[in-house]
User: Fold these one by one.
Assistant:
Number 1:
Amino acid sequence: MNLRAPGGNDATRTFNRSKNVVPCSGLCSRCLEACRGNCEVFKSSFRGREVIYPGPFGEMTAGGDKDYPVDYSHLNIQGYAQGAEGLPKGVEGGPDTATFPAVSTETEYGWTKKVKMRTPIFTGALGSTEIARKNWEHFAIGAAISGVTIVCGENVCGIDPKLELDAKGKIVSAPDMDRRIEVYKRFHDGYGEILVQMNVEDTRLGVAEYVRKKHKLNTIELKWGQGAKCIGGEIKVKNLERALELKKRGYIVTPDPTVKANQEAYKAGAIREFERHSRLGFVSEEGFMKEIKRLRDLGFERITLKTGAYSMVELAQAIKYSSMAKIDLLTIDGAPGGTGMSPWRMMQEWGIPTFYLQSLAYEFCEKLTRKKMRVPDIAIAGGFSLEDHVFKVVAMGAPYVKAVCMGRALMIPGFVGKNIGDWAKSNTLPPTVAEFGAKPEEIFVCYEELAEKYGSDMKDIPLGAVGIYTFSQRIKVGLQQLMAGSRNFNLSAISRKDIMSLTREAEEVSGIPYVMDAYRKEADKILTGK
């Protein structure tokens, strides 16, 4: 286990000079007075607050790389040589019926009015970061044709340069939000949905009222937090005029663009960017229930909640309040998560890691169930990317967890597909891609499948969306194989018995039996007849 505090990381574009690093401080064991750089302390000595964040902003995503004592790799999936759970009614299990293509990976969430998804994954919040804005068509269409939900994150309206407000500071027109919703809706075929997320500023601006009245959205998401950081959403702003505009709209902007010294530093080139921050939210049972009623009165059929890697107290509140308010989906996001912009050391060092957080969530759900309280449908987020992660999360949280929220893993195929299109046009395809061909229909294994389905509309599906669809199909098929091997032919058939702990510590944290104990009683009964 590596708990070392590094003095450099690729995310912050810093590095240690020495091969030997002091574990607790991250500093080189021999620090030279005349060192020419470039550890975090070195770079922070002249760029200061800029080094807090990964970069370059708008061109990358970053994920925490701290090595926690226990994680999902400490679980393995059980396989069986008999049985077939979850087959369609009337279908008897056998070699000709219990095949892995017969596995259903569909899931659904919602208190009464359910939303179905073809695969139990959906996107993390793609909000006001530049990387989400400029790639939205790829992400949104990709999610729509894959039949999964997309989350349009916080502050999208608030940072829109073309935003129009009335005299009371409420939204009259938000073109970027309009674009985001309309792009998804065009290819939406009934599976998944678009969730618009709200924080303090969004609530003040009237985002819920706007998307309900203009776009007739049926679902809205409240946001308490995320796993990547314990403060509000952040973006970087490159020019002074934009920083002043966002401050005028009520955002926290640092350094303060209205201060003359900061304006002069900007003109001199020392300050090259400003940061726009959202305010911290404050949670109370009374306030939460009041807001739920307000949103339902606006006409929303479904309300979801996203919470972060806070303490046990906030987790207990999120689960219980969601039960009381009949929340349709509670997404629990563990540390360290991934981000377009979060303070790097915060992402590494704060919050309850996902494995521990999910273990607590299951414990709390069981307590409410024993009290005869219905637990809301739950999704888990925080560092997942492939089908074995999905299986383990669903199994560990059964029967409460219905899906896995993926951030960077569902963005990467969008980047890849978009770039393949650009590379192909400029004849600069890298060898890793060119080995499969030079045209999209040669490179993308699912291209012709989509072309047959969408016909003339295929020209409006960007290659980033094709990438996301192709990736979602990989998840689906990989999950089908794992489910078939564990003899679960429907997602709801997966249970905690279908995984085992590889270490005693994982068993202690999660309650999942240790590999040398799992099914021991059943095995002994076969051997001894008792």
Number 2:
Amino acid sequence: MENYVGKRLDGRYEIIEIIGVGGMAVVYKAFDNIDNRIVAVKILKDEYLTNEEFRRRFKNESKAIAVLSHPNIVKVYDVSYGDRLQYIVMEYVEGITLKEYIEQQGIIETREAVYFVTQILRALQHAHDKGIVHRDIKPQNIMLISDGTIKVTDFGIARFSRSETKTMTETAIGSVHYISPEQAKGSVTDSKSDLYSVGVVLYEMLTGKLPFQSDNAVSVALMQLQKDPVRPRQINPNIPVGLEQIIMRAMQKNPFDRYQSASEMLVDIDEYKRNPNVKFDYSYFVDRQPTKFIPTQQLREDQYKTQLQPQPQPRPVQQTTQRQRAQAAAENALAMEKKKRRKAVGILLGVLAAVLVLAFVVWKFVLPEKNSVEVPNLVMLNFQNDVMNNEDYSDFHFQCETDEHSTAAAGTIVSQNPDKGRIERGGTITLYIAAGEEEIRVPDVYTYEYTSAMSILKAANFEVKIEKVINNKEEPGTVLRTSPAHDEKVEEGATITVYVATPGEQDPVEVPNLVGLTVSEAKEKLEDAGLELDNARTEYRASSQERGTIIGHESLGEKVLPGTKIAVYVSTGNMPTSATTTESTTESTTSSSTSESPTQDSTQPTTEPSSAPTTSAAAPTTATPTTTTTQPTTTDGPIMEFD
């Protein structure tokens, strides 16, 4: 594994230190020289660069998650897909993971847990609206800042090929304590899988325990499939009934019995916040009413009451003649005949009605069920690799339309119609597929100092060639023009020729190594090489090196034009204390904006040479540094502002 500390990526990202090492990547703290900010850079390990399938997935997913923009989601600023180096540049967040906070507190107070889960659901709703499913929601992937703000991390990292989710192994399952039953058995997942995981996270916050525990991951996965969790109120009786109902609905085994969207779950959360005593009328299963019967004792009581009631007295018998008796018998026979006919007609009509009802039920429910299929969610899959010729989708006919305006990778399905429900077997689903940009525009770097122009062009994945042009009107080193010109569309990775003003025929000189020298010694050495010290951009940084010693500088080992100004980084002689980290023995249990294990020791740049950076007075050093360098919080938890 190559160590990039002290190097500059693409002329832009200056690597300061390692802050996390994981199974597939190393995370570094870095300084963005163009946007003048601290960032986290996750660099893919060398062994994955030779895997074409993994590289393609990495590129597609990186572009997909880059479209997310939400205050509760860690931002992705930049991605690079070079042949020798692939990395993601992310927002640098100071805080601890929600997992660490749960371990500190034991059980999180109800109001605070609701505040946290509300932010998580808002982040997921934004991602789901963009067609992105997280698939690995867990407290280890949720950052908690000292002001109570939640940041969800690692979007899209768990989205790999189907074949990787079919076998139930500890590697394939991932964070098995939080996955949904459909993930445990390797089935297709959607947004409702994330909601199951949110239910588990809320369960853990309010009880201090996980719903399923075992010595190995496979056993836990089987519990997710087969076993019902202990109800939260049996562990913590202080949990309100309505909140327990919300948890249990989110954790239903059948996805159709869960909340169907994050917004639907938020509605019930808001209702609970308005009325903590609310009880929801959830029905997870079809009601089965037992056969009604009347106990023998009840029959006896009814018979006794009937006997006590006065009985009607019979009419006095009247004397009738034979003729009257015959006439009465005829009328009675006619009445009986009419009664029989009406009864037969009634029976016939009843049978006919029953047949019609049965036919309607068969037509409405049975036949469609046999001849229709559930519409799958294909958004963000690659049509050619994931859908076309896939036997899982043999029941559908696909009509493809090109989406010229989508920013997703070429071949990615960005939307579909219909997007849910059931359609006739063999029915058509229209897929809207991203065309992808094959060409990109050349940035405008005219009048820039040529080293800055090189950084900008390299950051845009262009190769750069420098051509000197004798020009005594412009400042030496100024970019006069580029070829191709700015705003022209060219292929990614194309070579851009930069024409730089120079007062005469001058050859580039190599920047000498200034590390370990004093500022005055560095100035003399630069002048001897025909270069200048850039006093305006000199930075002072905390370091274990002797105060006043140069610990780094621009363009080390590069060739630049004579007269170029070089900025140096000078040690203040003070090293900030870093929190001791603990290596996690389970997957992704450290504080990381990319769920990687953090490392110790961080340096902090400052603009004043006379003062060394210090940690917050209100922050103890018990928190673990994260991918984005954690800011420790007190064990009493961050100060919160609730809705």
Number 3:
Amino acid sequence: MTRQPLILSIVLATTPILAEEPTTLPTVTIEGERLPEPGVSHEETEDILGTPVDAGDFLRNIPGVSGTRMGGHGIDPIIRGQSQNQLNILLDGAYVHGGCPNRMDPPTSYSPIETYDTVTVIKGAQSVIYGGGGSGGTVLFERKTPRLTKNKFLRGKVGGGYTSNSETKELFGDITLGGTQGFARGIIEYQDGENYEDGDGNETRSAFTTQSGNLIFGYTPTEKTRFELSFEATRTDDVLYSGAGMDAPKADNDTIRLKYENEWGTKLELYHTDVEHVMDNFSLRPLTAPMKMLVAADSKTLGGRMSHNWLTDNDVEWTLGIDYQHNNRDANRLVGVSTLQSIMWPDVDLKQIGLFGEMLLPVREVDTLKLGLRYDRVTSEAARASEAAMGGVSPNKLYNKYYGKSAAEHEENNVGGFIRYEHELTNADNFLFISLSRSVRTADATERFLMANNSNSAIRWIGNPDLAPEQHHQIELGISSQKNRWNSNASLYYNNISDYILRDRAHAQAGILQNDNATIYRNVNARLYGFEWETQLKWNKKWLSGFTMDFVHATNTTDDRPIAQTPPLSGTLSFDYKPATWQIGGKLRLFAKQNRVDDDIKTGSGLDIQKTPGFAVLDFYGRMNINKQTQIKIGVNNVFDKNYAYHVNRANIDPFNPEPVQVNEPGRAFWLNITATF
């Protein structure tokens, strides 16, 4: 804790130094549609179709992004076969680390999508600005409040939505009031969903209720100078899960943000997030287990980032900065509601301070070279590792039993970076690129320090305090082309990983002394490769069609077996008719069978449930502008009521509906959205 004031003081003190002798970046105006960028997706939330239950649900509509479903809320995204802390997910500049080791509440569960303005998905390691790691990609949920004018002192958006299958109801409002010197913005969102039915009519435990509020106060003394202070609260209640042995009566998050940027290119962001998560097996379901179990967890994160961007006389653009993140997690598992059964997170502190720099320079007038370098100093410790729970079992006792190591303060010095070269082909609308990158991801609190065992100690899930950080070495080759009527982009990537952090079972592997099927973590070598392809064709001014395809192949090369939870080959085919004031269209989602699985609990991890069959699902949608201020959207998902599950969905362990093997996706669902702006 003593380092935090020092680090923040360094950040603040550096601001005037970096601001000396600035060169203001020129204003660039781009006309026409955005040139497609391989591996990068930009989405405006006003274009949302349907009623996504959270940001993870929304992300699964983006090509190359999948997501794990455990219930109706808290879908955990997967990009290029990588997930969880292999992705950097920032909620308006802040990191939010959830309170459930089993990922009931990933960061995206605390981000109601209607409360954001834009979403950017950067696939792979294409930047060093947004934190260490990020080998699978970076997701930026951003709020961008436009500067108000004398003639436009009030701006707002209100609306609501309904989805038939789960009877999900949504209401939201976003109002900004102010003037040229500042503004106050208030955002609220409410969503309530019941259990949905899958394509076979089976009721899936998936109900939830969420509500969020956000107040943003801004001071805008000049066109390019801005201060923002925001307070955000998200409350999620009574969340049911078919893919877990517990439900979540409570999942709350409070976030405070402070932002500053000026005309010289200096940006500063500070944030504090506080997650409180409660899960149990009795308050929201009839008790079927031998006894009541309850877990109360806290996850607090303090962090910030300061960067400076400038342009030199020879048109080289530089970005230099420093960031800091401190996450503390503490969780107790109670049996009979009051007896300490295990210390799931033994007061874990993970601290990371990073220095980063990026450079973009023109080459031969038409080509560009982009370089990035990052250094991270990481420390971790578990203050309660020696504290005993039921039966005198402490986290250190289990760490020693399985790994021969006790928890101690752990330190890492990680270096990553990338080189990307873009070569223009026939003109500026056609280019290809090649990039080489190294990214290093440290183990998180669960992988390093988790202690979970049931009342009779027959089932254990134990973190490994001796894990080395993952080291990803990637090469990517891509091409982008835009013609009068069509545009297309594609990329190939190969990722060689040293010390991949594998969630596995204890089968007396090297360094693992037991053979009792406990869930453990260990380092292995791994290899991932795949491709992504998107193309869009404009038949005329009104007709538009699109096609996407993505694939990833993941292998644990140490043991020569597939890595679990890898999405199969998938794609989409869409057609849209877009006159001036309305639109109608359809999308066919296609998924191949996934035969490469790690589903044997006796010899592997057993994290894959089965070889998931392929499927095709058709959706229809439409929108109409009733007037300049009001828009209505309607549609039907899963038109033919197909019964299906994404391969990465959790195993169905609902004792009240045991027939499905996995948590299936919703069956046919009609939806309606209405939005009014002013």
